[in-house]
Design a protein that fits this description.
The protein has about 200 residues and is mainly α. The protein contains ten helices and no strands. The longest helix has 25 residues. It is globular, with a radius of gyration of 17 Å.
């Protein structure tokens, strides 16, 4: 990897490390690091501070991934796709291990969504359809997110992206799934948080 790509990844890390979950939840009077699952992500903010707060966090985290990825293409000296993957990788790990909150962070799904929107919109479309179907069948955000991550590397390969992009998508998706291990355990024991279906009036 060139120094240009390393610099882009570092910039992406700093952008991704902005803890919007903590900032927004605090505005709503909640310390997301000590409430709910204690995970500084959009789902836990929604659960502890309300739907509006959760939506704001998801939008901001998605925007981090988009800007880090799309912006990288303008900083690239010769290989825009490589630069975009570097920017996305930096933002993803910045979100997961934020220097601003003692290297804690969310699981990176929203950041992946933003990065895919910038670099691989066709792959993202299949991933989002998968997420929607799984969520509305099960009402588990975690399971929908795991399935979303699982299908991304396959779609990247099928759509003919280069080897470096395929490897990056596989790595980030696998890492995101690994971050869901506690959720997987709760799913297996039937104790995972499940969003209830709205009542029809």
């Amino acid at each position: 990897m060139s120094w240009n790509a390393v610099s882009i990844a570092l910039l992406g890390y700093l952008l991704g490390a902005i803890p919007f979950a903590v900032i927004v939840a605090r505005h709503y009077g909640v310390n997301v690091l000590t409430h709910g699952s204690c995970n500084p992500g959009a789902t836990n903010v929604r659960r502890t501070a309300g739907k509006r707060a959760g939506r704001i966090v998801f939008f901001c985290d998605t925007l981090k991934g988009f800007l880090a990825t799309y912006g990288a293409s303008y900083l690239a000296r010769e290989n825009p796709q490589l630069a975009m993957m570097a920017g996305l990788t930096g933002a993803f790990f910045g979100h997961n291990f934020s220097v601003f909150i003692k290297f804690r962070g969310g699981k990176g799904i929203a950041v992946l969504v933003g990065g895919m929107a910038a670099a691989m919109a066709n792959v993202l479309l299949i991933g989002l359809l998968t997420w929607i179907i799984v969520f509305f069948l099960t009402r588990y955000v975690s399971l929908a997110s795991i399935c979303f991550c699982a299908i991304l590397p396959l779609c990247s390969y099928v759509f003919g992206y280069d080897n470096h992009t395929n490897a990056t998508v596989l790595f980030l998706s696998t890492f995101a799934i690994a971050r869901h291990v506690p959720n997987i355990r709760r799913l297996l024991t039937g104790t995972e948080y499940r969003f209830t279906r709205p009542e029809i009036r």
